[in-house]
Design brief:
CATH architecture: 2-Layer Sandwich
Structural class: alpha+beta
Distance between the termini: 75 Å
Order of helices and strands: HHEEEHEHEEH
Radius of gyration: 20 Å
Number of strands: 6
Helix content: 40-55%
Length: 190
């Protein structure tokens, strides 16, 4: 098994990932719906939104998969974040990077993988939207385009989620300052 290389910008990538404050958060239907659509469009039994952390890949959403994370060193997605385009592995048992991977040699005995990187506006890949299967296969050109479009949508959701939290924090800070000013003004007028 070939362990994935680290991206050249790994410290910045991890800092960016953590700035989204998404790791270990509860399931959210917006993300779950995307994995459902990805699996249906690509006609695979499994789809995941995988975020590649320092030593694990954590699944924000998953369809057809129970586990919440796997070690990074056996992660297909850790290889996919090194790409800017869709990474497709038609038969993992024949690919030198994955043929000895425990995800291939033992349960769940994965064969097919296609992962579209989740690239932030700063150009950093946080993880992937991926589809997997127990049988070797290919994607049609339309499936490839659709998977990439859904991955861009995941990135937009992540970006909007982060901005919503930033705005909520700014509003809370503003409200606290107003309250402090009003309390100070009331104290002076007494």
């Amino acid at each position: 098994m070939l362990k994935p290389a680290l991206p050249a910008n790994e410290p910045e990538r991890l800092e960016e990932l953590r700035s989204y404050e998404i790791l270990d958060t509860p399931d959210e239907s917006d993300y779950g719906d995307i994995t459902l659509l990805a699996a249906q469009i690509c006609q695979t039994p499994m789809a995941l939104i995988s975020l590649v952390d320092a030593d694990r890949q954590w699944f924000k959403a998953r369809f057809g998969v129970e586990t919440r994370q796997t070690p990074r060193d056996i992660s297909f997605c850790a290889h996919a974040i090194l790409e800017r385009d869709l990474m497709i592995v038609p038969d993992a048992s024949e690919d030198h990077r994955f043929r000895d991977n425990p995800l291939v040699t033992t349960e769940p005995k994965l064969r097919f993988y296609a992962g579209a990187p989740l690239v932030t506006p700063r150009g950093l890949a946080l993880g992937t939207l991926c589809v997997v299967d127990h049988v070797k296969r290919e994607l049609t050109p339309n499936q490839k385009v659709s998977l990439a479009a859904l991955a861009r949508h995941v990135t937009s959701l992540l970006h909007h989620r982060r901005h919503t939290f930033e705005l909520e924090a700014a509003v809370a800070e503003r409200d606290n300052r107003i309250a402090e000013l009003l309390n100070g003004q009331r104290a002076r007028t007494r």
